[in-house]
Amino acid sequence: MGRAIYDPHPAGQGISVREISRLTQTVSLEDAGLWMYDLITELYPICRSMTGDGVRRTLEIIGRANPLQVHEVPSGTSVFDWTVPKEWNIRDAFIKDSRGKKIVDWAHSNLHVVGYSVPVRRVMSLAELKKHLFSLPGRPDWIPYRTSYFKEDWGFCLSHEQLTGLEEGSYEVCIDSSLHDGHMTYGELLLKGESSDEVLISTHVCHPSLCNDNLSGIAMAVQLANLLRPLHLRYSYRFLFIPATLGSIAWLSMNRERAVRVKHGLVLAGVGDPGKTTYKKSRRGDAEIDRAACHVLERSREAFEIFDFVPYGYDERQYCSPGFNLPVGVLARTPHGKYPEYHTSADNLSLVQPTFLANSLFKCLSMLNVLENNAFCTSKNPQCEPQLGRRGIFRSFSERVGNPDAEMALLWVLNYSDGDHSLLDIAERSGLTFDAVRHAADVLLDQDLLSERG
Ligand SMILES: [Zn+2]
């Protein structure tokens, strides 16, 4: 990885409940972006799939910074309406032409082999081989990414240029893979906060050499865990590094009692491309995470897009299935399938960049900051305004914050702190930033003009 984990907490500074707020202001985004990019670079060559040693190796690398609990779910295990499949591993694969020259080599790109290809070793004609070849005519120099999880088959993916250049003749085909009863592997990490209520951070780890989908989500989740771990947190944070779809189904099936503790959640996927930030709401549509995400993006002064829930996409489909209906949204940049490089060899180390990763991380931290610091306050002086000038609040507050919104924030917080409006409600209604509202509440709490409940 090369780069050490930097310390976001300079020596001598204590850690408080509000630390995450300070973190959003002090974290070195440049270092964080480079660190995530380095991790992506290290994970890029590994051949991952829904099961197998590629996921194990990936979790091992992730686990260096954050010791993970690694779970092995046996093939054949029933998880709701699904069954954990056989485990797939691959050692080598190639196609040789009649002169014995390797023309397609898995060692050069693991996208060359259709994921879950059964073993094959024989000589065949071009016509027969072509039934097992896949390319992208519209992008003739890119290799597509394909899998055959639920039908036992085999195949190769290659560029369309290469496919159309194949000459008549016989070809030697080898896929040295195994498909047998084994396990599906996933990783889990819990950071304990004050409350047993949880924030779920879920990211899929089953794609081979593809950077945005989803080494970007993996790197961001790991970096997030690095940053949050030393903090005194209000919520507990559960990180899941899982194969897409079947991983979340398996986790939900085996953790029904834990799932009810999930009060907020984010699926992280595709967070490193140059596109604008997007947020897909949970099925509930008005969960606190949905409102926190909208608040942060609307005040970011950058382009963004917010989508309502639809029942296709990533693991939010399972978390938001009606029997769970968890408040889990999706933080991404360009949505999956909407960028040309998606599921092709062009989703590589040039598509994702440290600056986009860092930008996504910052927005995620800002959303978590809202969740960590949101509260219901009640004014202790609700009959007419308290006299703030007498308490010296206006002047000292303005000097400290240097922000003309600061006095407005005091008035908004005093007026709406009736026990029914949260600080996020007040931020939404006033048009002020959440931080300005939170800061005003802290000043008023100091002056014993408010009481707070989480
Ligand atoms: Zn994908």
Commentary on this structure:
This protein is α/β, with parallel strands linked by helices. Helix content is 33%, strand content 22%. It contains 15 helices and 19 strands. The strands form five sheets. The chain has an eight-stranded mixed β-sheet with strand order 1-10-12-11-13-16-14-15, sandwiched between helices. A four-stranded antiparallel β-sheet has the order 5-4-9-6. Strands 18-17-19 form a three-stranded antiparallel β-sheet. The model is unreliable at 1-17 (pLDDT under 50). Zinc ion is lined by residues 207, 213, 343. Zinc ion binds next to loops.
What can be said about this structure in brief?
The chain has helices at residues 19-26, 29-43, 53-63, 126-130, 160-164, 211-228, 246-254, 256-259, 288-298, 316-319, 354-373, 393-401, 405-416, 423-430, 434-446; strands at 69-74, 78-79, 82-83, 87-96, 102-105, 120-125, 133-134, 156-157, 170-180, 183-191, 198-204, 236-242, 262-268, 277-280, 304-307, 328-332, 376-379, 418-422, 450-453. The chain is α/β, with parallel strands linked by helices. Residues 1-17 have low confidence and may be disordered.
Q: End-to-end distance, in Å?
A: 39 Å
**Number of continuous helical runs:** 15
Give the tally of β-strands.
19
Task: Indicate the mean pLDDT.
Answer: 93
The share of residues in helices is 25-40%
**What is the strand arrangement across the widest sheet?**
1-10-12-11-13-16-14-15
**What profile does the largest beta sheet have?**
8 strands, mixed
Low-confidence runs of at least 5 consecutive residues = 1-17
Portion in strands: 15-25%
Radius of gyration over all CA atoms, rounded? 25 Å
Identify the overall geometry: elongated
